[in-house]
Amino acid sequence: MRKYKNFRCFFRLATIKKITLVQFRNYSSRTFEFDAGVTCITGPNGSGKTNLLDGVYYLCYTKSYFTAYQQQCVKLGLDGFRVEGAFDNEVIACKWQLGKKELKANGVEYEKPTDHIGKYAAVMVAPDDLELINDGSEPRRKWVDSILSQTDRGYLECLMRYQRVLQQRNAWLKLHGSSANPNYVELEYYDAQLAADGTYIHNKRNAFVRAFLPYLQAYYEQLTEGKEVVSIDYQTDMHQQTLAAWLQQSLQHDMRLQRTLRGIHKDDLLFVLNGTPVKGFGSQGQKKSFLFALKLAQYKYLSGILGFKPILLLDDVFEKLDQQRMEALLRIIRGADFGQVILTDTHEERVKNAFGDDAVISVIQL
Ligand SMILES: Nc1ncnc2c1ncn2[C@@H]1O[C@H](COP(=O)(O)OP(=O)(O)OP(=O)(O)O)[C@@H](O)[C@H]1O
Ligand SMILES: [Mg+2]
Prior knowledge:
By secondary structure, the protein is of the alpha/beta class.
């Protein structure tokens, strides 16, 4: 078994022991128990493996990893669901019904749902995650935002306010863009707000990339057993000048196009391998390795700041990995930096072989 004694004195435990899913996705009502080490969920396609992982993720963040629409988590034809999980020291229960969410810890409703943020954490690796590398900038911004929102309460507040004010500014641009006598007082207020929150968010993203890079490089090397250099280039308007200056400078342009063209909502992260962008030049294998390194580094970054080890959720990863990378991944996740692992696979044997005979793995057969 894993060496829990070693980190108990340094880390708060945040492992999940049991989960009950009621009217969640394909489940009517089922309870599952997890090992503190490795739990493998097996079963044929469509049996609910991914949904069970998502249930665990849901308890950590009170949202699904796969959809922003909570209604999609409700078992078809019904109007609500409930997810309850027993963690080491408390029971978290979340009920969602007709758009209303109720979140309780040990039977007591949170005064503010945001009090739940940062208590538990999970890092999911799922087959569609390659969109983080292949798609436009939005999934990458969301990825950074999801990490920083967990580790810094002010970040989430700033981000939400920034997005709200950005919408207001864009509405102003639509209304006044072609007006002969625009109300600049209102605009000044929006610009000041955007500049203040945008600067905070920019500084945090900048610091994050710097702190994150050494982890990324280390895991990429371990996964590929190579010496390729990986890097992240934080691309932002704010490297050149302040957001306040940009907003002022591009106002005429913004008014013509009736939307705000400069700001942290345009930021991107360029993933780089040996000096060239992974997106355009990386091979399939290099992209996969980069993605895994990103997720492992995310785990390491989060555990360092939160002070406990997140739950690692691996959906179907063995299906997609070749032998060498699979062995490397296993070596990493069974090392001292990692805690509870819950993974899915259609073949129990494949997982057992991968982990080796001496490994203690509990299996949930769906
Ligand atoms: N809201 C919902 N209500 C009812 N069923 C749902 C809902 N959402 C998803 N499902 C169904 O749940 C089933 C299980 O899905 P899931 O993705 O968990 O399967 P899986 O075991 O991971 O399969 P695979 O091995 O193909 O990845 C699917 O048939 C899916 O259509
Ligand atoms: Mg699945």
